Amino acid sequence: MGEKPQTILVVGPGPALRHRVEELSRHYGYRLHYAEDPYAAGFELENTQVDALVCEAAPAYTAECRLVREISQRSVHLPVILFVEPECEEDLYDEIGCASFAVVRPATPLEELHRILQRAMIQRRRPQAA
Hints:
With 130 residues, the protein is of the alpha/beta class. The protein has 5 helices and 5 strands; from the N terminus they run E-H-E-H-E-H-E-H-E-H. Helix content is 48%, strand content 17%. The two termini are 26 Å apart.
């Protein structure tokens, strides 16, 4: 098991998201990098190899939404997981419906969050292998 731990860039985490990703790291061995906001995340993405990005995105039209849109427009096949409050989800799809991302909620079980991340990372690797 000499496999390198997968790295997640966590953008602008509030307390609930920070707790969730730290719990994820403890249980599944992810390495976490933090960016205080989407602008710092842009710098991190240019200077650090990450396997997925997780951020809070509520409400729509936020800097986080612009970051997700920019990632998809650059054709960077980086899995993006958005941590969303249920009441903001509809607006989010309207704003960044063209982007490729997965939505999780504060109540999403830890095992399911791990499965979503793994599935997204496997799908990311497929286009690179072709």
